[in-house]
Amino acid sequence: MSGLEVRQLRYFVAVAEELHFGRAAERLGMAQPPLSRAIRELERQLGVQLLERTTRQVALTEAGRVLLRDARIALDAVTAADRRVRNAGRPAPALRLAFKPDYDAGLLPRMLAEYQRDPAAVPVELLMGARGEQVPALWDGRADVAMLPTPFDDRGLDFEPLLTEPRLVALAVDDPLAARDGLEPADLAGRLLPDGAPADDETGAPPPGSVLPPCRDLAQIFNMIELGTVVWFPPLSLIRRHRRPGIAYRPVRGLRPSTLAVAWPQASRSPAVAAFVRAATEVAATHTAEDLVAP
Amino acid sequence: MSGLEVRQLRYFVAVAEELHFGRAAERLGMAQPPLSRAIRELERQLGVQLLERTTRQVALTEAGRVLLRDARIALDAVTAADRRVRNAGRPAPALRLAFKPDYDAGLLPRMLAEYQRDPAAVPVELLMGARGEQVPALWDGRADVAMLPTPFDDRGLDFEPLLTEPRLVALAVDDPLAARDGLEPADLAGRLLPDGAPADDETGAPPPGSVLPPCRDLAQIFNMIELGTVVWFPPLSLIRRHRRPGIAYRPVRGLRPSTLAVAWPQASRSPAVAAFVRAATEVAATHTAEDLVAP
DNA sequence: GCCACTCATATCGCCACGGTATCAATGGGG
DNA sequence: CCCCATTGATACCGTGGCGATATGAGTGGC
């Protein structure tokens, strides 16, 4: 048999990420020599060189890169098994829902209410997280289901789009651009949020020169917008619930709308998840119909 | 940390599948007492009861079923990491292609030739397997890419449809149905192949009463058809290459056509896989165009 | 009611894994 | 140019985890 063990994978991932046996050992809470030996033994047992070592430098080989990717996936799967069975073993297993505050289009309360009407409903645990934390939470079993804006890395996940709404640009009221009509994406280039917020637009990655700290707090973002430092592209539902005097909202030509989706692990066969997806779809459909009547 | 180990997962899966500590221990090549102790220790460490034991019976709890599913996935991921890194570490890593003979629409040679023209091409290893073995081979890292008919369990996989072709029913020439026109699926119920062959049609699962052995050999299938025992629904391309005097082919109303697809793990970022997918798509498109000109 | 079956407990022995001490190689700085 | 700091490798030792054997205990069938 293969004989590959979780401990070996953890060790390798630590070394591959640190590219330094000493620091990796520290991170693992162990001494450096047994770590060196474990990696060497791993290479021997696989018959593959994973690392190029000199006494001053450690680098990954091609095979090492392959193992790093696959080991992370495998470790996530093992961790997920652990977390899910712990949850399933509780007297009242919960549905653990990962979401990002203010990105639920204000529908979360209604969805939860609708969900509880389902006979397959179980208690819900809410997992608030920053943008980009929902998907890893599904991968490693912290969450059973997530609500998040598309697009996202859906490897190993199934998902269902719920609703699509336009986005506007948020900028300071005294910003010269606020007076203009028909803003173009190019007008706003170089002023995107550095990270965290929905900056992965068609305009691409955040500006490399930016020294602004990644900011995940809504109040901070608004402050920075008021200062004219950055602009931001919130969806309509978020704007409706967070009006501020110092901030103006303007349409931008060709700005991709925001689509909210519900996602869950493909492996999931849980009736509780299915019920939540049904409830979420239901509420979103109703909400869309309302919007059509009274926009 | 979690501390869950591969050994524990293997032990649990063995017990959960056998529902018998003695047989599971035998399958694992070990004695029964340490296995009992290991499972008990696993339950203690998770704080979850996985099995209901009496001295005469072992049964899975709900949490046990959850762990069985997730443990299989995790073990596949670990095994895949092992196999993939071993392949990646070879002097000339191969592209391992899983397929089922006669279900390549006769395009495999052209696809391989087209693939070899790509600068990203590497040596190809062919993994012939019975129906249903391609997907597990992708899951546990035996294969990098697969050609197989849809639908299939695509959890964790990406895929691309290549071409769609009609299927006919194959039956004995002296079968009364062979004289009829406009066959319906209902006419053929109860005579489907028990397993292995493409029996997962809209007509559903194989008949439960059937005592016929699962048969995966083409010659055997043809023999059984000639005997009038069963009928079968091969795609057109297979028929063209396997004409036999004793067998007649007739259209069936509403019979779902067969779609050939190429599939690969979502985790894959290998240029070799991408190149093969491109080559396969290319050849399939060309072939379809030829068919349009000279059908 | 006895026996066979099956899972649990007790005890022993080994080796795998981690720790400490030390070596060896390499690159940078005085 | 040589010395020293840095960093991975080697040597050796002790412990604890894991598996084997022997045995016990509970249960269903005949």
UniProtKB/TrEMBL annotation, chains A, B:
Among its keywords, does the record have DNA-binding? yes
Species source reads Actinoplanes campanulatus
**Entry GO terms, CC:** protein-DNA complex
- The annotated region (Disordered) lies at 188-211
Give the HTH lysR-type domain ranges.
Answer: 4-61
Q: Which family does it belong to?
A: Belongs to the LysR transcriptional regulatory family.
Its name, as the record gives it, is DNA-binding transcriptional LysR family regulator
Name the source's superkingdom: Bacteria
What InterPro entries does UniProt report for this protein, alphabetically? LysR_HTH_N, LysR_subst-bd, WH-like_DNA-bd_sf, WH_DNA-bd_sf
